[in-house]
């Protein structure tokens, strides 16, 4: 049964059968903004371009690599991005992820100690204006979900008004085992580069 994550929650990556997750998908689902026309007689949809990214760091919190819409696969193939979604769901929530990043923990370089997931609003749409946005962590592939491990609702999180960047969560290695910290906090950054810097300074 999937866990409904809470901000700051730390969890072990143990499946319902007792084994550990190795192939992890982090999927983000969000919707376009609906705008009312004159006197509310009509509505239109404004596309929202959210960008999910994964930054890898070593034990000294030094950046190793970033997988994002402009670099869809890590050098060792352990992290893969499904590609850039420029609009979000235009016709209501279809329940499917708009962007998925797959992470094979066993294929990461031995030096990698942190895999941080961040979200940026490319066109600067305020998170609080987006009608729905959620993260889910699951085992499987971007096209086939085997088991949803955890879910996290970011659309209605407190403190997101006025922000366009956030830290979703961080997978981290302790004593050879991977765990997950559901950070779920907005940052003051305006782009991916600065968000990655903030992660290294404040969230590892």
TrEMBL record:
Pfam families for this protein: TerD
InterPro entries documented for this protein: Stress/Tellurium_Resist, TerD
Biological process annotations from GO: response to tellurium ion
Signal in keyword set: no
Keyword match Transcription: no
Keywords from the named record: Tellurium resistance
Domain TerD residue range list: 1-194
Protein name, entry field: TerD family protein
Organism expressing this protein natively: Mucilaginibacter robiniae
